[in-house]
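Record passed on here:
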Amino acid sequence: MARFVDLHPDNPQARLVQQVVDALRDDDALIAYPTDSGYALGCRIGNRDGRDRMLRIRDLDERHHFTLVCRDFAQLGHFVHVSNAAFRAIKAATPGPYTFILPGTPEVPRRLLHPKKRTVGVRIPDHRLVQTLLEALGEPLLSTTLILPGEEEARTDGWAIKEDLDHQVDLVLECGEVTAQPTTVIDWSEGVPEVVRAGAGDPARFEG
């Protein structure tokens, strides 16, 4: 059964944050956690089983673009190649509800890259709990938006997630209200921005 962790939205309790980090590090936990654009599933980058569980929960195949949720732009730059043009635009839009698809660096395990494009998603959320969690963890979270098969919007209710995924995830984090819109996805792998999915972030800034 999944453990339910209720955290304060403005000042997440350090003790509980550390417990989540310990579960991610020591137990290879898979968590369901709130962001600025719906809930997401997340685990450490090196957690192979967590990656496979995310694919099964969402009924996705190997071509799915996973996302590395990063604390800041400096961390993001370790994992993807960012051109000068993309740098300026992404910097101006983050933190916020955007996911950017970019070519991965050697820091990204091959199993996390798109099998043909060698790309990966990256994002910097504007969410107090996620930022606190990333700071304590010291590395990005491998993530995917929590949109279940047959559904179109990201999940927003921690208790409902626990009820539906009680035996498929290890922890469910609750932290105030969550919007249902997933991130806006921008594919920048070909050198120019292409809006793949319009979501919580305004796509107009990336459209010609």
User: Anything to note?
Assistant: The two ends are 48 Å apart (CA to CA). Strands lie at 3-6, 31-35, 38-44, 67-69, 98-103, 119-123, 141-145, 171-174, 184-187, 194-197.
